[in-house]
């Protein structure tokens, strides 16, 4: 065997060549995957597909012509509704609740906007907790370490311009609350020292404590629900411009603009992608995207109880 051939077949050099070939193959496959499989196609808003009703998309906060507020967008036709001010929000089923101080806006699944307020002008709403079945509201107010609650009638019985909750009488020290998913109008509280309380409204005048030794099954169920409530909201996995979305039909790989902020819409089959200068929706299953644009001069919320007006 010649000296040159023996040198070429030296184990260290053979290993190095092998690694180079494998690395080259992986890189080539990665480039093919990245360039061909995860591109989304630009389409008109009406071409974005929805299995159910088209939701309202909320961007909070946003600056509109120098005014800070909340932007609501109907993605099917990109009609927008701007509400000035600093608002907190809660999604429940297909409804959206915006609240600040003593004011509450409700955007229902028909995309109608309703305005209500609370009666106690000294109390600010800190959280809105919605029973998904009865649509009864538990309104929470926080003053230092003390949380106060009241429960309203179901949203279907709340008229436009109504006032709710004159008495925030149920109080706990630094607490969280949720509705029992298995029992209608049943509100459960967990306070700062780990004590659980149950309130079946309106049949019970006040909440009562749930003791582990007396009701172990209920105690463990509610502790588990509170742990899930405290978990951070799941977001798609993102590495640079690569996004891994867990849709209703499994994992999907997509490409977005670098530096994007990506979040799921409620059905997980659509993503909202926000960059410094633009905002667009991605249909994960169909691999389509549509820009959501809006003018500096957006209509302010005036008439409530009516759908978002078409352009």
Overview of the molecule:
- This protein has 311 residues and is an alpha+beta fold.
- 15% of the residues lie in helices and 41% in strands.
- The protein is built from 3 helices and 25 strands.
- The chain is globular, with a radius of gyration of 26 Å.
- About 6% of the residues have low confidence.
In short:
The protein has 311 residues and is an alpha+beta fold.
Question: What does the secondary structure layout of this molecule look like, with pairings?
Answer:
Layout: H1 3-8, H2 11-36, E1 41-42, E2 57-64, E3 67-74, E4 79-84, E5 88-92, E6 95-100, E7 103-107, E8 112-118, E9 127-130, E10 136-143, E11 146-154, E12 163-164, E13 170-173, E14 176-179, E15 186-190, E16 196-200, E17 208-210, H3 216-230, E18 237-239, E19 242-247, E20 250-255, E21 261-264, E22 270-274, E23 279-283, E24 288-291, E25 306-307
Parallel strand pairs: 1-24, 8-12
Antiparallel strand pairs: 2-3, 3-4, 5-6, 6-7, 7-8, 8-25, 9-10, 10-11, 11-13, 14-15, 15-16, 16-17, 18-19, 19-20, 21-22, 22-23, 23-24
Keywords:
311 residues, five-stranded mixed β-sheet, alpha+beta, 41% strand, globular
